[in-house]
Amino acid sequence: MIKNPIDAAVRRRFTAPLLEWYHSLGRDLPWRRTDDPYCIWLSEIMLQQTQVVTVLPYYHRFLETFPTIKALASADLEAVLKLWQGLGYYARARHLHRAAQILVSQFSAKMPESFESVIALPGIGRSTAGAILTIAHGKCYPILDGNVRRVLCRFFAIEGDPREKSVDAWLWHCSETLMPKHNASHYLQAIMDLGATVCMPKQPSCTRCPVEKSCAARKKGLEMLLPIKAPSKKVPHYDYFAGVICVDNAVLIRRRPLKGLLAGLWEFPGERVAENSKQASIVLAHERFFREHLGLDTRESKSYMTIQHVFTHFKMTLHVFLHHSKKRMEVASPLDWAERETLSDRPFSSAHQKIVLQLTEKQNQGELFQ
C-alpha cells in the first residue's frame, strides 16, 4: 500500500482537474440548488446505500409533506415510515425523525455548526456529518463514503483491504489532505459525482475521467481490481409464511417492534419456518401458528401467493395464505384490524406491500371478500 506523503503537486494534479470537470459536467441535483441544511441533510441520508435516480422522487415528496425540521419532528413516526416506504433501510427514516425531534428540543430546529453536535445525532456518522457541515455550512471536513473510497483506492492504487483499520485510516488521511481549503463544498460534490458517474464499481469509464493521467491504478492496469473486495459469502435463504385473515371488510395486520429489522412497519402475521421445510410442513406451521396464537382454525386457508425478496444479509421466500373467517376476534397491540380501504395508508415492508397491492387489485375486481 502506498503511504508516500501527499504533497502540493499531488493535490493540484487531483483537485484542479476534478473541480474543472465538475463545474462543466457535474450533475444538476435539487439539493445542490439550496443552502438549506435540512434539505442537504435529508439528501445525504436518503443517498446512503441508494442511487440518485431512486432518491429523487422520494426527496421531493418528503419535502412536500415535511418542508421543515419542525414539521418532521411533529409528525407521527408511522407517517414518516409510510412516506419512506419502498426506499428501504428504514432505520434511516426512524433516525431522521428522532434527530429532527432532538434538533427542535435542543437546537431551536436548526442544524448545529459544530462537528461534535452533528455527529451525535441519530443516523449520522463521520462521513455524513462532514458532508452536511461542508456543503451546508461552508466548513471543511473530509468524507469517505463508498464513492470516495473507491476513487481514492484507485487514484493511489491502494491494494490493501479498505475494511482493515490501517487502510481505512490512510484513506481518511488521503481524503482530508486532498481537500482544498477554499471551494470545499464543490470539491466534495465533485469527488462524489466522479465515483457515481465515472469511477464506477464494475465498469470505470477511465477515458472520461479528469484525473486519468495521474491515476496510479490506471497506470498499473489495476482499475478493474481495486478496491480490494471481500470474499463473497453465501447468502442464506429462509422460508417465511404470512396469513391474510379476512373478516367481512377487514384484514388482520401486525406492527413490528420498534427496534430491529423493519422496525415499526406493518405486516401480515406469520413467522419464519425451519430450514429446508417442504410445502406441507409450511402449511402445517401456518395452521399451528394461528391456532396457538389466536385460537383460529385455518385449515381451510388457500395458498394465495409466493413472494421472493432479498434483504441485505439473506434471501426470503414468503408463502402467503388467505383465510376467510366468520367472526372478528378481539385483538390487542401489536395486532390490529384494518379496513380494506385503509390498508394502503399504513407503512408496510416491500415484501408485504406486494400483498397489499394484490389485495387491492382483487378488491377492485370484487374477488377478495366474496
From TrEMBL:
What Pfam families does this protein's entry cite?
Answer: HhH-GPD, NUDIX_4
Keyword Iron-sulfur attached: yes
UniProt keywords (A-Z) are: 4Fe-4S, DNA damage, DNA repair, Glycosidase, Hydrolase, Iron, Iron-sulfur, Metal-binding
**What taxonomic classification does the UniProt entry list for its organism?**
unclassified sequences, metagenomes, ecological metagenomes
**SUPFAM superfamilies assigned:** DNA-glycosylase, Nudix
Name any cofactors this protein relies on.
[4Fe-4S] cluster
**The EC number(s) this enzyme carries:** 3.2.2.31
Q: Which GO terms describe its molecular function?
A: 4 iron, 4 sulfur cluster binding; 8-oxo-7,8-dihydroguanine DNA N-glycosylase activity; adenine/guanine mispair binding; metal ion binding; oxidized purine DNA binding; purine-specific mismatch base pair DNA N-glycosylase activity
Task: Please name the GO terms of the biological process aspect recorded for this protein, alphabetically.
Answer: base-excision repair; mismatch repair
Q: Which residues form the HhH-GPD domain?
A: 46-197
Q: Does the keyword field hold DNA repair?
A: yes
What's the protein called, per UniProt?
Adenine DNA glycosylase
